[in-house]
Structure formats: C-alpha cells, structure tokens
C-alpha cells in the first residue's frame, strides 16, 4: 500500500516538474513599485552636481541638404551585387569585418547545459523504474507464496471441516484484495512511468539531434550567404547619396586610416541615411559585457531570412570607438526608436549627439530634443524631482560597464556601481532614466523580485513607461546632421 502511494506521488511529481518549466511569476497589480532609477543620498554622502557637459559638435556640416535628384547616375552600380566570401559569428576569421552570424552558437551552449540536467534526471528515473520493477517482482513472488499457502490451508481446512472456516474467509478476502491490487494497479502504474520515460527519451533524442546539427554548423566558421552591396561609403548617409536606397547591411569606411566594417543602414525611416549603432529586439544577445567588449562592439549585424540579402538587423552594439569616431567627424543627430509589447511605437531624436574618445571615458553630449518618447538624456526622469531627477540625467556622463565604474554614484566606492546593478553598459549617472542596454525581459512588466539586484535593470525608458516596464525593442541610429531633412 505504502509503495502504491509512493508510486502515485512519484508520477505526480514527474508531471508537475514539466509544468514548472513554464510557470511565470506575474507582477501583482497592487504592487506600488517606486522608481529605483536613482540612488538617493544617505546623509553621509552627497550628490555632486554634474560638471557642465562638453558641448556637442555643431555648426557647419560636411553635408549640404540632399540634392533633389538623388542617384540617377549611380543606380546601375547600386543594383549589381557581389557575393563576398566572408567569415563571422562563432569564430571570426576577420574581426574587423564585424560580427555576423545567426545566434545558433549561443543557443548551443544553452542547450548543452539543459541536456546535462535532463540526462541526470532520466538516469535517475531509469534507476527508479528498475527498482520498482524489482520490488514488484518481489511482491509477485510473495503473493505467489501466499497463494500456495492459501491452497495448502484450504486443503487442510477441507480436511478439518469448519474449524478454521472463519479464519480462512478472512484470509481469502485479504488475498483477493492484494492479488487484485498487484495484478491491475501496479502494472498500470509501471506502464505510466514507462510512458513518461519514453517521452523523456524522445525529448532527449530531439535535443541531441539539434545539438549535433548545431555542432556541425559551428565546427567551421559560420559563413555569410548574403551578398554585401557594391555601393559603399563613409557611413550610411554617404551610401544613400551614392544610390544605396534599400535598408540592409553595408560595408562602411569612415576614414582611410580605419579598416572598413559592416553596419546596418536604415534607408527608409525619416528619409533614410541612418547608421545603426545599437539594436535590441529579441534578447538574443547578452548586453551585460565588459569595457573592452563595449569598446570593440559585439552582437550580430544582420541576417538573411531568405530574401537573398542581409535585410534584417540583429542585436548589436557597434562599439564605442566606432561610435565616437563617427560622431566626431562632424555634427551628428541620433534617432532612438522604441516599441512596447502591444506594438506601440515612440521615438526620441536629438539633433546633436557626440561621443568623446576613450581617453575621456566616451563622454556623451546631446542637444536639441524632439519626439514622442520623452527626453531622458537631457532632462532625466520626469517622475522625480529636484536632485533625485538631476541624478538621472545622462548628458555629460562617461560610459560605465560592470568592470569600469565611471558613474556618479559615490565615485571610488567599488560597491556602488550602476552598471553592475542595472545590467548593461551605458552613460550612467546615479543612475539612469533610460537603460537601453539593460536586461531583456519577456512581456514588459517586471518586478523587483525578478531583477538580479532588485533594481530596474530592464530595457527602460522612464519618461515613456516608467522603471518597471522593459521594452520589446529599441534601436539607436545616427546620421550626419545636415538640417532641413525633415
Ligand atoms: C529623493 O528621494 C528620496 C527617497 O526616494 C526621498 O526621501 C527624498 O525626499 C527625495 N528628494 C526630493 C528632493 O524629492
Ligand atoms: Ca560608482
């Protein structure tokens, strides 16, 4: 009987484990979560107001307004495309060519981790089942012996008349019950267990097949199958003026001292010519990275989903050195577009956007906001007042990563690091009103309990959605400012 109960419990727990994988903690509606974006002074420390930000580069642009007849003489050049052999992704034959690969390789390591867990669970399950089979065999033997004893007793009782009649009846009843249990319940429970085991085996089979295919894929460097357009330029505006009018991946070379690299160009939004420097859309790339990684850039530039060219941007950070160099060539504007989980879109534009070089910590300076998302970079979080708001302004800040603390939250105290708590590299103050490189949360609202350090480490734009809503998508694109384009 005890064994039966154990069996049922076991089957139940196997089933409930499967459901556990999908259970999600939903934020309760009554939760009043205050903004965690700032770190108010404790009394001992004081917040030292921002130094004035270096003015962003403005004034005469290298670019005049767009000529009204764009690209009639260069269209033939733009339309011929050339397949360029290339290697990127898991192993880069040539890092300077940029990163370009489906995220299969990151997927692989995740699957391998899961595979180990499932394997242990199944081998334990195997042991349990064989143990059960054995113990049920023992019980079969016991019942068999019982049956024999019963027959023997019956013979004796027949000989002895009704002397032990009463006792025999009892024994008969018990025997029937036990035999019934053994014959029906036990085998059916074992069948259920065997079914569970089989379905787990099937799942492992599938995982193994997936892993094998990923392994072969990652054995050799992933090759990019989509062609790189022949038309190239200093950046995407240059390419647009040379006739590159489709949004896709291009090769750019901002100046002749730098190697050319790949980048995604948006040629349709607000008249096109935008060089994408940051993109989040599905959480496929980890943005919790070191200083060196943010300096060099990381992620996947673009991919081909069957149209024959790299028209879909991946998640990436172009790299602080490249961003700085592009914005210091002349007056530059930035557009930050974002989407929530219901599909609503807003944008923030700054007509001035300059990032200084590494020696000064990639100081950010922006100016002249317009848009629908709310101005976080210059104004800080609207929901905060006084110093609490000032300490969320990003303009004038240096870049910080979890291994390089340049923020304004008690400089010098290594336990007070915005980047470590808020998930990504950014121009943190003390700490943020926007956090585009934060952790990717599925679905939008998230809570303190879900965050690694209890802080608002999601993809946050406070002046649109507050601290506790993580956006579905956000991107940053820059363009030489030439005025009057809109
Ligand atoms: C700043 O925030 C702290 C805690 O959230 C609060 O106690 C303080 O009064 C705020 N300061 C201002 C000026 O609102
Ligand atoms: Ca700090």
TrEMBL record:
<dbReference type="InterPro" id="IPR036056">
    <property type="entry name" value="Fibrinogen-like_C"/>
</dbReference>
<keyword id="KW-0094">Blood coagulation</keyword>
<dbReference type="Pfam" id="PF00147">
    <property type="entry name" value="Fibrinogen_C"/>
</dbReference>
<keyword id="KW-0175">Coiled coil</keyword>
<dbReference type="GO" id="GO:0005201">
    <property type="term" value="F:extracellular matrix structural constituent"/>
</dbReference>
<feature type="compositionally biased region" description="Polar residues">
    <location>
        <begin position="67"/>
        <end position="78"/>
    </location>
</feature>
<dbReference type="GO" id="GO:0034116">
    <property type="term" value="P:positive regulation of heterotypic cell-cell adhesion"/>
</dbReference>
<keyword id="KW-0325">Glycoprotein</keyword>
<feature type="region of interest" description="Disordered">
    <location>
        <begin position="29"/>
        <end position="89"/>
    </location>
</feature>
<dbReference type="InterPro" id="IPR014716">
    <property type="entry name" value="Fibrinogen_a/b/g_C_1"/>
</dbReference>
<keyword id="KW-0732">Signal</keyword>
<dbReference type="GO" id="GO:0005577">
    <property type="term" value="C:fibrinogen complex"/>
</dbReference>
<dbReference type="Pfam" id="PF08702">
    <property type="entry name" value="Fib_alpha"/>
</dbReference>
<feature type="signal peptide">
    <location>
        <begin position="1"/>
        <end position="16"/>
    </location>
</feature>
<dbReference type="InterPro" id="IPR037579">
    <property type="entry name" value="FIB_ANG-like"/>
</dbReference>
<dbReference type="GO" id="GO:0070527">
    <property type="term" value="P:platelet aggregation"/>
</dbReference>
<dbReference type="GO" id="GO:0072377">
    <property type="term" value="P:blood coagulation, common pathway"/>
</dbReference>
<keyword id="KW-1015">Disulfide bond</keyword>
<dbReference type="InterPro" id="IPR020837">
    <property type="entry name" value="Fibrinogen_CS"/>
</dbReference>
<keyword id="KW-0964">Secreted</keyword>
<dbReference type="InterPro" id="IPR012290">
    <property type="entry name" value="Fibrinogen_a/b/g_coil_dom"/>
</dbReference>
<dbReference type="GO" id="GO:0030674">
    <property type="term" value="F:protein-macromolecule adaptor activity"/>
</dbReference>
<dbReference type="GO" id="GO:0005102">
    <property type="term" value="F:signaling receptor binding"/>
</dbReference>
<feature type="coiled-coil region">
    <location>
        <begin position="190"/>
        <end position="217"/>
    </location>
</feature>
<keyword id="KW-0356">Hemostasis</keyword>
<comment type="subunit">
    <text>Heterohexamer; disulfide linked. Contains 2 sets of 3 non-identical chains (alpha, beta and gamma). The 2 heterotrimers are in head to head conformation with the N-termini in a small central domain.</text>
</comment>
<feature type="domain" description="Fibrinogen C-terminal">
    <location>
        <begin position="227"/>
        <end position="482"/>
    </location>
</feature>
<dbReference type="GO" id="GO:0042730">
    <property type="term" value="P:fibrinolysis"/>
</dbReference>
<dbReference type="InterPro" id="IPR002181">
    <property type="entry name" value="Fibrinogen_a/b/g_C_dom"/>
</dbReference>
<protein>
    <recommendedName>
        <fullName>Fibrinogen beta chain</fullName>
    </recommendedName>
</protein>
<dbReference type="GO" id="GO:0051258">
    <property type="term" value="P:protein polymerization"/>
</dbReference>
